[in-house]
Every structure is written in structure tokens, then in C-alpha cells.
Design goal:
9-stranded mixed β-sheet; Rossmann fold; 2 domains; Ubiquitin-like (UB roll); alpha/beta
């Protein structure tokens, strides 16, 4: 009987403490004001579409945050506002116990720049979504030249296949899509490389590296204006005409 009474008293005291702490927490939240904004950006080393100063400038247009009571903070509105920035992929926003508003942003990663006819250029991001160009920053990604969206899709599919291949990603500067869906690569250095409509990256890479090595050894690589890899297990190279 005594043990049961002690247990009941302990539980009662514990519940009382919890209720008291919750009361203090609520009262503290009612009175607490936001004193600063702490902004961090994921993966900001590889891409500079977002910077902390630029995010702060965006927030200036949103309205007052510093000095606001935490209970009056419109977190959902702040989230939606930040999510509407074209280069933002994900947003996390919350106040901490020190009166800081924590904002964590993940920026979208451009995979390619698209040039279709007379339309304005745009990027395609890692989710395959359209991403507008940025007035202050240009991503160093392949430029795809095509006449329509279907042709763009063919080039994007090739880029997806090679996205983890350092050889291809360091080589490609532009991809030109020809009318029949055939792809031609403009490398950062050297002759254009025609790879056809059904490219097999591993096979193409093997043949191209073999060709490069042979021509570098003889000092003839600079003599070629176009390399054709569209034939199975063959490399056909066209020399410059002077």
C-alpha cells in the first residue's frame, strides 16, 4: 500500500514538473523575439546560384523578421517565399532556442544549358525540370543545341548515362542534335565528335581513347576537324582542308 502511494505521488510530481516546464516554454515563446537569421546553403561549393547575401536580399523583400515575436512568425509564408526562388530545391526553416531563425537551403543543380531555336536559353536541373538562367551566375555545364524539345530529350538522355564518367564530363562543351536525332559533341579542345543516334558511352569511350592515344603518339591529332564514332568498332576521322 505504501509503495503504491509513493508511486502515485512520484507520478503526480513528475506530471506537475512537466506541466510547469511546458508552461514556461509557452510563456517563453510568447515573449521571445527573433534576434538574428542564420542562413546556410548546401553544396554551395559547386554552384553559386545562391549565396547568403543574395538570400538576405530576397528576405528584405519579404518584410520584417528580426524583432518579430516568435509566436507571430509566419513560418509557412517564409518557407513558400524562399521556395519560390528559381534556384532553390529544398528549404528548412525554424526558430531555435536562442532566438535565431534557422534557414537551410539546398540549391538546384544545372545539368545542361538548352538552346532551342530563337527561344530564350534555360537550364535543365538534376530533376529534369526547367530552370531559368541567372543574371549573376553562369553554370559551367554542356550547352545543348536543338530545334525542339524532343531533340533536347535525346541529348539529356545521353548526359544522364555519362554523368558519373569523368572522361566524358570533362570532355564535353556542347552537344548538337541533328535532325534525325544524331548527336555531335563539341569538345572543350579538339575536333568535333559525331556519335550518332544510338550512342553506347562505354564503347564510344574505348574507341575514342584508342584513337586519341594513337594520334597523340604520332603528333597528328591537331590535323583532324571531325571524328566519326557512329560505325561499330570504327573511328573515321576527317582531316582539315587547307
Amino acid at each position: 500500500m505504501k509503495s503504491s502511494t509513493v508511486t502515485i505521488l512520484s507520478i503526480t510530481l513528475l506530471m506537475g514538473c512537466i506541466i510547469t516546464l511546458l508552461g514556461f516554454t509557452y510563456a517563453d515563446k510568447v515573449e521571445k523575439r527573433i534576434t538574428s537569421i542564420n542562413i546556410s546553403i548546401t553544396d554551395d561549393f559547386d554552384s553559386k546560384f545562391l549565396t547568403v547575401p543574395r538570400v538576405r536580399t530576397h528576405l528584405e523583400s519579404f518584410g520584417n523578421i528580426i524583432g518579430e515575436l516568435e509566436k507571430d512568425l509566419r513560418l509557412e509564408a517564409i518557407y513558400s517565399y524562399l521556395k519560390s526562388i528559381p534556384s532553390v530545391l529544398n528549404v528548412v526553416v525554424y526558430p531555435n532556442l536562442n532566438g535565431e531563425l534557422i534557414i537551410q537551403l539546398t540549391q538546384r543543380k544545372a545539368q545542361a544549358r538548352i538552346h532551342v531555336g530563337s527561344e530564350l536559353d534555360y537550364y535543365i536541373d538534376e530533376m529534369g525540370e526547367v530552370m531559368p538562367l541567372d543574371p549573376n551566375y553562369s553554370a559551367r555545364v554542356p550547352v545543348i543545341y536543338a530545334k525542339n524539345e524532343k531533340e533536347v530529350t535525346q541529348a539529356i538522355a545521353f548526359l544522364k548515362e555519362i554523368e558519373k564518367d569523368e572522361f566524358w564530363t570533362s570532355l564535353i562543351d556542347q552537344i548538337i542534335v541533328h535532325p534525325l536525332g544524331e548527336l555531335e559533341i563539341v569538345p572543350r579542345i579538339g575536333a568535333k565528335i559525331f556519335i550518332g543516334s544510338s550512342p553506347q558511352p562505354d564503347v564510344l569511350k574505348r574507341n575514342l581513347v584508342t584513337f586519341y592515344r594513337a594520334q597523340i603518339k604520332t603528333g597528328n591529332l591537331k590535323n583532324y576537324s571531325r571524328i566519326d564514332l557512329s560505325y561499330q568498332d570504327q573511328v573515321i576521322a576527317k582531316r582539315h582542308v587547307y
